[in-house]
Amino acid sequence: MAARVGIPSSLFYYVHFPMWQTFFSELGIEVVVSGQTTKNLLDSGVKEALADACVPVKLFFGHVISLKDKVDYLFVPRMVCLNRKTIYCPKFLGLPDMIRHSLSGLPPLIDVQMDNREGFAAQWKAYLQIGGIFGFGRLKILRAYIKALAAAGRFKSLLLKGLSPPEAIDALFKGGSASPAALKKEGLVFAVLGYPYEVHDPFISVGLVNKLKKMGITVITMENISPARLSRANQLEKKMFWTFSDIALNAAYYLFREGAVDGIIHLTAFGCGPDSMVDKLMELSSKDYPDTPYMSVTIDEHTGDAGISTRLEAFVDMVKRKKEAREKLCQR
Amino acid sequence: MPKVTFPRMGESYRTFKMLMNDLGNEVIIPPRPNKKTLDHGVRHSPEFACLPLKILTGTYVETCQMGAEIIVTSGGSGPCRAGLYGQLHQKILKSIGFPVDIIVFEAPKSHPIDFIRKVNRLNAARLSYRGVWDCIKRGWEKLKYLDDAEKATHVVRPREINRGETTRVYREVLEWIDSAYTLKEIKEAGKAALEAIHQVPQDSSRQILKVGLVGEIYVLLEPASNLEMEETLGNLGVEVHRSMFLTGWTRDNTVKETSEHLSVKDAARPYIPLCIGGHGQETVGHTIIYSKEGYDGVVQMAPFTCIPEIVARTILTSVSREHNIPVLTFFLDEQTGKAGMSTRVEAFVDLMRRKKESGERPVAN
């Protein structure tokens, strides 16, 4: 029987899942995911994780708990740095250690370190190591790795076409539609900025993106903007240290400067360390661009549906009114 | 003369005051963080920023109101947030109407030219490089004696016969070190200070517990931010060993890595194999070393939302079990009250004492 590897559907799932899934299935290994977040999943995570941790980490614990009895291996790589410039948040650096030392009865963890600062081929070496755990030869691993890279490339281009990560994953592996919903000519365009594991998890974000879509608003996220544009938009003399924070902040700078959207919503988790700085910098920069309204929404494990809806409706109404007033002014 | 100020971290401001004066600047001494400082800080800082950032914002606002023009602070290369504080503070201060200059010193090892340029900026008296080096050398000596004096109080305080005497003597000798100027004077004052602290009448028959303090550097070093944890423990008859001092940290981070530092990393390796920013790895490493040296317990202190310490805390649960050492954690923020903290510390000390009397842990010394 083929070995089963569990990949928790949280944190890096929204960024690297297509690559990992392709790599493992090319090697003939069965991949088991923990699926959509549910209330039970979150509750079990909250019980085990430290109270001071942020909600995505608690959620990750929950996903790991739901997977641990179903698989032979758990895939929790130690992601340090992939672009040779910025590293991931400290909690990702210590993620395998946190899981290992606070949960019991775990299957073996695959906690290979991925740090591209170590050298050009560091990522390939990491994948070689993963393949080695299952006893495959170099050639077979290389073939799977190349296919995985191609899948990652396809995933990225789908994102740039305007799909959200879950839609793109559907399109790649489940035959979902590969074209984004047609842009409406009229109506508002909002940017929802925030880390992929918060924005695209409908449970933890209390369906924020879907709520906006129901109100007839087109939503773009930071994955839909090309990385080259983002890195040019940087306005800080010292780069943000953390990859996702760097992208989110640059996306805000880019959108503020271009004036391409009607409103920006920053979604952040309660107690998030990097976001305390990102949010303040966005807020300070929003004062320079009064034409683009900005709102920050904080979520945690207790976030209520009604509260978020009220805030969103108020924000949308305000933006609509502002836009109408401006259009009237132009017509005169 | 440009008016210069800097963040306050324990008693180290005495050294920086001397150094900045020597370089020909007028120094605005940052006031000890208090209720007012925190009020300013909380008002202008992001909500989830850590306590050190809030205290620094408050301190900067206070010193700016006193007329500071240049703020000197340290940088960092991450992944700890502290490396970006300079940039964020600049923007915050500008937005509330204090367009001051913030000079951020990065590690000279990785930014040598930048370092020299910034030293030149501060060198208003146009001293030669040799002169600057002499100033730094004297400052370093002073810093070492300040740290040594503090270390001595940690040993003497739990054994003192008249409660509060150590603290009183300590306050007094700080002024001796503070007023010393030449290298010879500093050495004399420092030695006299250490002697005076050890002269405090002590009861050598008392049973003393030994506790290690680990955690994030700022809340460890600034007594106002940790609500005088060392004093509280000392008064309960606990000898404190703090894992971090400014001289120790600087030695580890500016020139080369010292052997002590390396052994801490080695100790932590089975639990955290790489630096996760801040002092998460050191927290775990020091806890293991304290356990091996026969300490009775460890107190971890960290600012609320400090991610490296959250990771460390998660791992400390199993370190505590495997190495049989009790650990008490405090996440500090602007809401922390002293009474609640004292109660928890007292209970912790009682537990350690009972454990020691029942002979579960090897007796220290």
Q: Measure the end-to-end span of chain B.
A: 53 Å
Oligomer: heterodimer
Number of domains of chain B: 3
Average residue pLDDT of chain B = 85
Helix content of chain B: 40-55%
Q: Output the structural class of chain A.
A: alpha/beta
| CATH class categorisation of the largest domain in chain B | Alpha Beta
**Form type of chain B:** globular
Q: If classified by CATH, what would the architecture of the largest domain in chain B be?
A: 3-Layer(aba) Sandwich
List the chains of the largest interface with their residue counts: A-B, 36 and 43 residues
Beta-strand content of chain A: 5-15%
Which CATH architecture of the largest domain in chain A would you pick? 3-Layer(aba) Sandwich
Tell me the number of structural domains of chain A. 2
Q: What is the name of the CATH topology of the largest domain in chain A?
A: Rossmann fold
Q: How many DSSP H or I helices of chain A?
A: 14
Main β-sheet, spatial strand arrangement of chain B: 2-1-3-4
